[in-house]
Design brief:
By secondary structure, the protein is of the alpha+beta class. It has two helices and four strands; from the N terminus they run E-E-E-E-H-H. It has a single domain, classed as Roll (Transcriptional Co-activator pc4, Chain A). Strand 2 and strand 3 form a beta hairpin. It starts with a strand and ends with a helix.
């Protein structure tokens, strides 16, 4: 894999986005979740904030994220409906 594959992202605040990217470094397939910031020219640049793990760890990360979802719903921090994709979001995912 020579190029990064941008899976998606979302705004963290007016100056920063969070991006999920699959890449390869020295023969290792990696999953990155990183904060990107706007530089002085308005270009998005990766920050040092985030994590990068081998893609073989994705099932464990996914299990932990599912557990986090359960906990925040149980604690009333978010509702189950907050995790339902709207139709326009589902369509854009299907196109990828």
């Amino acid at each position: 894999m020579s190029d990064e594959i941008v899976i998606g992202g979302f705004p963290k605040n007016p100056r920063e986005d969070v991006r999920v990217v699959i890449s390869n470094f020295k023969g290792h397939d990696l999953l990155g979740v990183r904060v990107w910031y706007k530089d002085s020219e308005g270009e998005l640049r990766p920050s040092k904030t985030g994590i990068t793990v081998r893609v073989d760890l994705l099932p464990e990360l996914s299990r932990l994220m599912e557990k986090a979802k359960e906990v925040v719903i149980e604690k009333g921090m978010l509702d189950e409906e907050d995790f339902v994709l709207e139709e326009s979001e589902e369509e854009s995912e299907d196109e990828d």
